[in-house]
Amino acid sequence: MSFISFRTLTALGLLSAGLGVAFVGCSSDDTSSNNPPPDGGKDTGSDTSTGGSPIQKGQLVELLPGSSGDGASGLTVDLGGKTASSSTTAPKGSYSISVGNSNPFFMRVTGPGHAGLIEQEWFLSGDADRGKTPVPSSTLVQGLAGLLDGIDGTKGALGVSVVNLPPCADNGGATVELDTGTSGDAGTDAGDSGSDAGGTDAGTSNVIVRYFGTNGFPDKNLTSVQKGVLLPSAIIYNLPPGEVTIKVKHPSCTQNATFPFPDPLVPNIKYTGKMKVEAAGDVKNGNGIISFARIFLK
């Protein structure tokens, strides 16, 4: 199978939060703190809600081999139980949903021909434009999932974008692991076997971390985040289904632990810090569901 160039996708502005959701990565030559947001979104909406019900709008775009970034129509967007189908008319793939309140929610995208997507939890403090969210096709997920040895469909998979913000100069050298809430080894493995006898819990002993190289693919020989690689920086899989906490360590920067945390470039979206995964399912055949989250360094 041939894959579309990930640098081409970057140039098209297609690599966004939703893409990654686990199996797609990209590199950026810009490693400053002004890296684009993981979802590539721009604030083209209003800064305040037009009424008592904040509205989130955006556009789902196709991410598949040879894609030109066409809008992805006919997919279901779920924002905390408020749903809409992405438009089949211009602008194709667009959606607009009144969330009804300011309660936090996990954005979900599902539909035929695509793997399901779960975004980390956020809430709206006013109307917000999420921008473009690439949705990985089954074809792309199938090909990339084949690069992840030992993936267990009964466990969860989470793509992580490690984003540096001032004064943190870059994200290079960061390491990602599951936070089990203990001082022991979380049982993650950046090597070949995907298992670790030091795991503190049978449910986490086979958790695997893979870091993405500058070529946009996961590489089992890498042991940390590569400078400027954002989308995602890493994937952590074989996670116990449910809410998870991810810990990021960096040689000179610290992980943001203050929530709610505003998206740096998408006004009126604030992250709660919560992430969750579901059983990945049949991702080897391009189906199932995968999750995505951003972790900010300062």
TrEMBL record:
PROSITE patterns xrefs: PROKAR_LIPOPROTEIN (PS51257)
Coiled coil: none
Signal peptide boundaries: 1-22
Assigned keywords, A-Z: Signal
Keyword Cell membrane annotated: no
Residue ranges, annotated region (Disordered): 28-56, 174-201
Top-level taxon of the source organism: Bacteria
Listed Low complexity bias regions: 179-195
Protein name: Lipoprotein
Organism phylogeny: Bacteria, Pseudomonadati, Myxococcota, Myxococcia, Myxococcales
